Amino acid sequence: MTMLDTLFGLIPAESRGQQWVAEDLQLINWGGYDGGPHRVRFSPYATLLCGGSGSGKSTLMDAYIALMMPHTTPFNGASNGGITGRPRGDEQRNILSYGRGKIDESRTDEGTRLRVLRGDGEDTWTAIAMTWLDHDGSRFTALRAWYIPAAARILEDTVRVRATFDGFFDLSQLEEAASQRLADSALRTLGLETLGTDREFSARLHAVLGIGAAGSGAKAMSLLARIQAGQQITTVDDLYKRLVLEEPETMATADAVVAHFDELESTRTSMITARQQVNALEPIQGIRERIAAAAEQVRLIDEVGDFASPSSRATLWRAERRLDLLREVEAELRDRTHALDLTLREKKALVDAAEAERDGLLDLLRQSGGDRLETAQRELRAVERRLADVRRERDRFDAVLAELGLSASSADEFAKVQSEARAAQSEASARRQARATFAEAESARQSLAKRRRALAEERAEADRLRGSIPPALDRARMLLAEAAGLDVDDLPFVGELIEVRTEFEPWREAFNLALGGFATTLLIDDAHLARFRAAIDEVRLPMRLRYEGVQAGLAESPNGDGRTLPGRLDHRSTPFTGWLQQRLDERFAFVCVDSSSQLSAHTMALTITGQMSQGTRGAHGGHGRENVLGFSNERRLRALDEQAEALEAEVAAATAAVTEAEAAMDAIEQRSTAFAMIHGLTWEQIDVDSLTQELERWTAVEAEVTTANPEIAELRERAETLKVKAAVLRDEIGAVGAQRAEAQERWGAVTDDVDDCQRVVDEAESLSVDAAQAAFLDERFMLSSPSDAEGLSASERLARLDLALKSAAARLAADRRAAEEAHDEQRERMRQLMSSFLERWPNLNLLPDPDASVDDFLRILEALRANGLHELENEWRDSLLKLSGNDLTSLDSTLSRSVREIKERIEPINSIMRELPFYDDQHRLQISPRESQSEARKRFRRDLREVRGLIEAASTDDEREHAYKRMSRLIGRMRRSAPDFAELIDVRNHVRVSAERVLAATGEHVALYDHIGEKSGGESQELVAFIVGAALRYQLGDAGASHPRYAPVFMDEALIKADAHFTKRAIGAWRGLGFQLVIGAPNDKYSAIEPHVDVEYTILKDTRGRSWAKPKVAVGE
């Protein structure tokens, strides 16, 4: 838009600096204004539209809004201050509802149905046009039209027309274009200039009609819309902020700061996400390699096969490796055999030389008297051997005697011991008695142990039971219940339903005896009796059970006479209890008496010992029977615990008896065994003293010969040395011979092995072991490195290989299992990694399939690495701090500037109002701004400066991270959703505005106008007219002109709360400011307005919902 610099500021070039007034408004098919065109002509000064509620006044006003205002301006603002939802949305009046002429809604079986004047199941159209008149007679028309298809649900489904015309345009000319769905070509044929967007349309209107200074037409139209809505306002501050001030720049600046931060933060978040994704995906390559390695391991093992198979690669590898080693061993054994042959020849020669020398020495020794010495030495050696044997036997004999507590140092004493031994062998009766005693004690102990186990089982089963009924009876009941398909609770024993009252506990045994078998009778509902009998007929029980069908559900009675047996019992509440109480009263109403002498005094009586009488009959005995009465199993468990404690003492005593009998039997057996050991001995076998004397005699002979001829000892020593040497050499010859034989045998075996391995290799001509297979088998079964083989012979290396090959099959199987497990484990780990990745970052194009999707995941990883986002986080954070720090600086300055601008904007408005009399000719109205302070705003501004300082001073990662967190919290307070956003950012809240009446001549203060609600309706309307009218002149860019360039001001339900005097002054204020007024008012509230308008229309509506405007005072032709 081209602007001209004038005395009044920048104004549109196309505006001629004069005034446009609304001449007339045309409607076709708009709301209740069906058909048309409907035409309303306006006075250049003031026009009144009056009518009843719902007649269509606001519909006319909304037509002006639909034509002139942006789509964010809601309809019917004056009547519906409490409306919610999006402006012109489904919940409010909108173009579609006006175009179809919505009447109301009704509920049908299909849902809510609209009642409309037109467009129900068919296409329709609507149009609005306004013509303005300039002072020179020029006219300008703007129109909007909508073609609404039957299926249209939202505005975007319609054909929208925005057009202007230089001059007056009759809307009836659109009929032909409407038949062509308002095609652009048809509109241009009519001379209309169409515009494609709302922005272009508004710019055209603002340019031609001169709306707004410096291109701020949108602000002027926004103020006109707020004036037209005429919402209730209570203070001058609220009036000025809602009707004059637009949304401050600070809010847009804060939004920009937040948006900038969020944009950079979003990038940072993307980088963090990328880093997390890279970290999550990086293990995939390693896992894939491990999966491949495990699969390759399995493949290699499968390819080499089993060592047990003669045609496998493993067998061929074994043959080749053993063949190489066997040939080395063969050469080694050949060399060893030759070396052993040489050693044998050498040692045989040494033996022959030693024996020849010894023979010469022996001849010399015999010539020197050595025969007698040799005899003495021979006898001496024989005696030493016999003495050693006798001593061993004597030691054993003395140990046996020590066990028996006996001794024998002479032949006579030995004879006595032998007699005792023979007597001990005949003590068979003592042994039998000891064995019998042991067997009897052991039998008693086992019997008690069996009783203890049975008692423990009974205790466990009793713990399961609820009452005192024996387990055997309970098991029988369970069999019957299972056969009959009943629950155990449906078959109670009588004893389970009754309990002896605590104060009568001493009578428990007597009551058990008196009730007898009735206490163990099963009760069953007689409704189930026939089915029960049929079901249990085939059941075999080890004991006989009595049952009785009873009437269930009878009412229970309170406890009876405490002197009788039934009165001394408590009853568990069940369906059978009522019947049981009756039966006890009928059959067991025994009177409990203190002594037998009282039995005859009653028809039925019972003593505490259990004797009972029934007339002349009676019964006694049976004491010691188990208790079967009681709800709880506590009494039975206590009794069983007492039995178990007593039984433990018996078991301990029996165990001690067994130990004692066993010890006695062992003593007898030990004595018999000991005597058996010495029974066959003779005195000569243990007579050490006699042999000791003989040894001393031969030792003396040897000493005598040696002393007589000293040379004999030397000769004999030399001969003995040669003898030992020859013996040693012969042993060595034997050892070397054995080694040679072993080597020879080993050589033969190795030769056979070589032949076998060569045969395996020859037979496997079509089979080969590749390098990978050979390397795998070498690593598993050969020495791991040359350093390990260093110093080992070929035989040792072959032995190690054969030892390793013994477990080769098991090791290969274990290796294969381990590889398979590793493969499965790594695949599962891969799947879990993929699943975890997709849970955090869903991707419908990916599946957690370790086989099919691994390449896709790796491509994602490569893309992330190529992108490099994950490595730029620190750089982006620094950039974020720098840029956002600049934004904070901009916001801080904008906050200060915006408060200053609010104050500055008031001065032009005050200048306008200084020329307008207010209250009377001597007074003027002025607006007074006052900046307000709050601790929250001070702290916010201080935080802005501190965070900027932190950002500038940050030099380390920790400091930058701290500054970033502080800034993030600060940005959070700038968001529109923040609770203190309006307090901190909306600078309109930083200034308090009031009005004051001053003297025109001096500007002296006369009166303060703060709360509009304190004034009368007329005074408040006059005040609003002055303030808003002056502000509108400023917004329109006409502050210094005699008249505003754009004059129309529409006011819906305004000026209706004042009397004629104040209404006149309010209208006078608007007209004095040069505005053209179009006022809407209800029928009962327009009387004060009517005298001050030039044109008046009455808005009417018929019973079918159609509206029209009837001139009451029309515009003169």
From TrEMBL:
Top-rank taxon, per record: Bacteria
Keyword annotations for this protein, in alphabetical order, are: Coiled coil
Q: Which residues form a coiled coil?
A: 316-400, 438-465, 637-671, 809-836
By what name is this protein known?
Answer: AAA family ATPase
Q: What is the lineage of its organism?
A: Bacteria, Bacillati, Actinomycetota, Actinomycetes, Micrococcales
